Structure formats: C-alpha cells, structure tokens
Amino acid sequence: MTEALLSALSAVADPASGKPLSQSGRVDGIDVKEGVATLILKPGEEGEDIAALRGAIDAVLTALPEIDRTRVIIETTLARGASKAQPAESQPLTAPARFVIAVASGKGGVGKSTVAANLAGACAKMGLKTGLMDADIYGPSAPRIFGLTDVPGLKKEKGGIEPLEAHGVKIISMGFLVGERDPVVWRAPMVTGAIRQFLGEVNWGDLDVLIIDMPPGTGDVQLAVAQGAPISGTVIVSTPQNLALDDAKKAAALFDRTAIPILGVLENMSFFICPNCGETSEIFGRGGVRAEADLIGAPFLGEIPLHPELREASDAGRLVVSGEGPVAKAFERAADAMLHQAAAAQRPAPEIVFSD
Q1: Whether residue 122 sits in one domain with residue 65
Q2: Is 354 inside any structural domain?
Q3: What whole-number distance in Å separates Cα of residue 174 and Cα of residue 106?
Q4: Beta-bridge partners for 32
Q5: What is the rounded CA–CA span in Å between residue 264 and residue 298?
Q6: Is the same domain home to 103 and 61?
Q7: Which among 89, 124, 140 is the end of a domain?
Q8: If you write DSSP's letter for every residue of 241-291 in order, what string do you get?
C-alpha cells in the first residue's frame, strides 16, 4: 500500500524543488489505517502555499479506492531540532473560541478527562456554545465519556474537519480516527501536527468556550498547546494526596513559565459520598489542593466529590453534570468560577495614574 501511495504522490510537485513529491526527500512517513492516509512531510521553504499542497495531495490520494480521507502533517523546523525562527506552521493559531481553556493535571489517574468533559457539559448547560478537544493522542477518553465509541471516523468538508456533537458539546478526538483497541504509535512531530490540526483545521464554528483535555505530563503536547495555541488560561486538576499534588505542581509550573494564566485549581475525588446513607468519607484526605492553590496564588475552584454516579455516568457515555444531584452541582459551581476567572484574565489591566 505504501508503494501505491508514493506512486500517486509522484503526480504532485514539491513547491521548493519542482521534483515529484515522492522523489523530493520530503516524505518522512506514511501510515494508512481504516481508509485514512496520514502523510508526514519535512519542512518546506518559508512562505510555501501549504493549503494548495495539502489540496493536491488530498486529490491524488483520495483517488485511490482504499483511501477515504487524508491527513497531511508538515513538521516544523523546531520539531526537527532547529533553533532559528519558526515557520508559519508553528506560528500561533487564531483562537477558535472566546475562551480556550486547557484542563491539565501533570499526572494520570486523577479523573482529569472526566472533569474536563463535565466542565464542558456545564458550560453547554449554561447555554454557551461549547467544544472539547481531546489532546490525549495516545490515550483518548472523550469517545467513551461522551458515548461516541461506535463512530466510524471524521468527515472533512469545505469548512474543515467536522467535529462530532454529544450532550450539547462539539468534540474532536483521535479516538474517532483509530480503533478502540488500536494503539497510536506516533513520533513527536506527528503528535504535535495532529494537535495543530485539531486547533486550526476543525470547523468549530462560533464557540464561546473550547475546553482542551490535556494528556498527563509536561511533554510535546503540552508545549504544542502552550506555545502554539491562543490559550485563555488553564485549570489544574488534582486529588488531595501529595502524590498527585507533586505532579500537579509541575503542570502549573509549565503554564506559568509559558505565561499562560492559571485560572484555578480544582480538587477531584475530594470526599466520598455513600450512595446509601449520604455520609461522607475523606478517602484521599482533603484540603491539600486548596492549600496548594493558596501557596501558588491561584483561585480554588472547588471540590468534586467521589460518587458511584460519576463512574456509572462516564462508563455509560453520559455526563453527570446533565443531571441534578450533588456531583452535578459541584461541576456547575466549578465551571462558573472557571469562566469568571477566564473573563477576568482577558480584561485589560486598569490604567494606573500617578499623582504629582
């Protein structure tokens, strides 16, 4: 199949050399999965008409009977180790929403994806036009949480890649492009390229809020979002125990160093609510996240309780915030606080007048 794709690419001329693209030395990788062809190209010359190149590639590859859609990722010089000025591919993108908010944790297993999904659901519940971008390329969770595990793929129209929609939220995720059990075995340039496409080539429409569900850690995806996307601010999620807080501090430090406001810190699994008697138990301790928020000077957005209803809803593809109960109310309060902080962060600083 790779040979057939390379043969088809010989009909496309490399803008820089004029040679057939397959012979230009720019093809750095080809992957075909379930009718989607992913092509990785090395950087071209500054000012290259990227849209025209992608259009030509799409035309010749989708003419093959086995290919339904294409994804063209053009590596940046920064991704390949250069230290000079970044080309247009790595320049900041236009904001796809009034508020673009990254939800991060630094550590896996703290319920960050569930929190991100329900914060998005809470925004939609308020009547805001809301989207969610699942930036966890290697371990996407959005399809399961939103009940979209049987989606056959994504469509690309004239306006861009069409997101799916569930519970009033527009959603994009790598989970819509690969099988449920298929691993994503990609190098860093492919991952950062996918992130940029999710941000800049999806037909998000006129969104009020875009929530970005960040993967764990402080690596390539975090840098791609922090340095290339117009982020309004970030929400840091942690459970109360020190083990989770240690990594949450690193996530907060990353965004602080990239001059992205921390809109607040949210404590997940703050306490357990017994579904039978209603009594609460502080399984993981309590208050550690509030104390850390005070220490770094960030707002504390609230406590999300641990309740079987939350697990059941997520497994069933429902958002718990769509209901009423104590967990839904906690998410609504957290989302309201988050949006207030985002609005405050966008206001211009007051002018200071010094008296004589």
Answers
A1: no
A2: no
A3: 20
A4: 37
A5: 5
A6: no
A7: 89
A8: SHHHHHHHHHHHHHHHHTT--EEEEEEEEEEEE-TTT--EE-TT-SSHHHH
DSSP label at residue 225:
H
- Enumerate the β-bridge partners of residue 130: 169, 209
Rounded CA-CA distance 227/222 in Å is 8
Q: Split the chain (356 residues) into runs of 10 and give each run's mean pLDDT.
A: 84 88 85 80 78 88 88 57 39 79 78 92 96 90 90 80 94 84 70 83 93 80 74 86 60 72 85 67 68 79 83 87 89 94 72 43
Total structural domains within the chain: 2
Ranges of H-type helices in 98-187: 112-125, 142-145
- Alpha-carbon gap, residue 34 to 86, rounded angstroms: 33
Residue with tokens 């469509």: 155
Cβ–Cβ under 8 Å, residues 61 and 175: no
- Distance (Å, rounded) from C-alpha 157 to C-alpha 247? 40
Please check whether residue 143 is in contact with residue 179, taking contact to mean a CB–CB distance below 8 angstroms. no
Domain-embedded: residue 353: no
| Amino acid found at 356 | D
Q: Is residue 352 part of a domain?
A: no
What does the alpha-carbon distance between residue 101 and residue 78 come to, in Å, rounded to a whole number? Answer: 25
Residue with tokens 């941000």: 199
132 and 267 in a common domain = yes
The answer to whether the CB of 5 falls within 8 A of the CB of 31 is no
Token duo for residue 191: 């991952």
Q: In the numeric block, which tokens belong to residue 342?
A: 């985002």
Residues 78 and 184 in one domain: no
* pTM (global) more than 0.85: no
Tokens 């340039």, residue? Answer: 189
Question: The domain containing residue 287 runs over which residues?
Answer: 97-346
